[in-house]
Batch of 2 targets.
Target 1
Amino acid sequence: MKYPDIAFETMFAWVNRPRIMYSPGLRSEVGFEMGQLGGTKAVIFTDKGLVSAGIAEMVAEKVRGSDLALAGIFDSIIQDARIDLINEGAAFYRKCGADCMIAVGGGSVMDTAKAVNIMIGGGHEDFQPLADQAGLWDDAKALPPHIAFPTTAGTGCEVTNAMVVLDMNAHAKLSVTHPYCNCDVAMLDPELTVKLPAKITAFTGMDALTHAIEGITSTGAEPISDALGLHAIRLIYKYLPIAVRDPEDIAARGHMLIASTMAGMCFVNTMTGGVHATAHALGALYGIPHGLANAIMLPIVMDYNVDDVPERYMMIADAMGIDVSGKKPAEAAKMAVEAIVHLKKEVGLADTLKDFKVPKDPEKLKPLIDLAAADGQVGYNPHYLEEEDILKLYLKAI
Ligand SMILES: [Fe+2]
């Protein structure tokens, strides 16, 4: 396919901060890398599932075998980065006398660690007022040393300078940004991902795919992110079904981790869109895992956007290996939507929200629609989404 004529914003800035390292077994370098950053006593942030699966220990044993002291393991993190647990995590870090952190986990763990580091770096006691500010850019300073091992592929949280936190009082997911909150070194070790169950592999892989697709089609899209997002799509479309089918396939797991990081680098610069806006609301009000909510909404929102960015969807179709030669952009764009539906079937994911008791009654859907309409990502969707558009999208998913 020849590169189509594609317009983009005439001015943009492109940011990527962390050092990114990749290798199966890379965790053995954690002590050295933290030493390079000046850290001497680390807290590992993780969750109980990763502790019981032995994944946290795969990193902890490498810390113990190095010059880096292990101050403690904070494993209380559950689904979503909850503000109360962020506060607990900061208190734990201080009590241990730590001077650096290692996140071992998926998005909830990595986002909790980011928020804790902001509290430690800024001397804060409570994350709630910071979450309420959303953008923490004024007088922001570099934070204590921070290494992340993503154990899903994934959220891309290892490279994003934002975190999504769950405000239990407001029943809302808040997006908070800070220029230095992401880790200093993202260590991609696919051996940490082989025990991930097929279902979670599929959810998180669809999240990464959504980051790439929305990153490429957002109103902030630009050529650098296009390059990252399109290659992420190539890798995910090829390797996600393999990783779901054969969890121990290190090549597939490795490609998925790299793709997830690339998709993170893509969308953190361009933002996402209607899929993430509607998925965040579904997560906040119905507890639907983020990746699954994205997977359900992705083809529906893409279909809604087809006429707004057909050339961009044509590039996405091409990246998924669809032969678009001789096709009109709108025709190729529809093929991209169909390919997503096919991929979801292949990895065993639901098409609708029917298992989650989301009401069909528009009146009862109002809180969900209000939340999605207020989400920071909604404004980046290529088709401007009014509340009635969001209602239509949800009704197609129920
Ligand atoms: Fe996401």
Target 2
Amino acid sequence: MQTDWNQIAERIQSADAVLIGASNGLSITEGLHLFADNAAFENLFGDFKRRYGIRCLLHGMGARWPSEEEKWAFWSRAIQHYCLEYQPTQVMEDLKAIVGDKDYFIVTSNGECHFEACGFAPEKIYEIEGTWLNMQYVRPCHEILYPVSDAVRKMAAAEQNGRVPSELVPRCPRCGGPMAVHIAAGNGFLEDTAAQERYSAFLERYHGKHLVVLELGIGWRNQLIKAPLMRLVAREPHAVYVTVNLGEVYITEDIQDKSFGIDGPLSDVLASLRKACGR
Ligand SMILES: [Zn+2]
């Protein structure tokens, strides 16, 4: 089916706001593949692969490490590389241009903080499964998220042979217990309730208005972001749904007439859409 870029661009340009949903597909487009044992993973974590049998980033993120020193060696290296040294990519630049000066909100399960690094406003982002730049207590003894960047810089610089020095390992200031990167893994994950409230306020503000839901790289069975976004489009009379995915375009029956499905690589699709938007 031929994609009508102009028609989609028109909907975006006449929208009151854009709600962006994003997941793995966008990260992969940017070169961060959580599930792949690829060259990038070999370059960054070849030693961890051979020492611990870690098969991919996701595997390392959920691994049971023999020590805090090794756990933080893995994490500080990953965060240093994928967050702190990250440079905005073309696909993000295109997305920013498409949104233009419209109000927007971003809901994502991607935790690597790339939206923020690309200049999207932190208060307009809800990282539903946490972020790599925050940490919490493994067993939360108090419900506060702490920034991890400074600790990561020190640990990554001091790491040797897959271990960080013990004195740099983050500890809970109240009970001395271990800390964990703020990702939704297991019990005790602290929900970002402030971001949830900002998201609700956004939905409230644009209730009944012309909202474009732009969904990027979310698997067709995703229940965390995709299913709720499709339900939102179904109940909002003036909402439009634009879903982009490679080989997995799925739109529920009830919103077919107000939806656009685009099958293709995000980098190509967003470049074409940006062009159609004339930006
Ligand atoms: Zn504690």
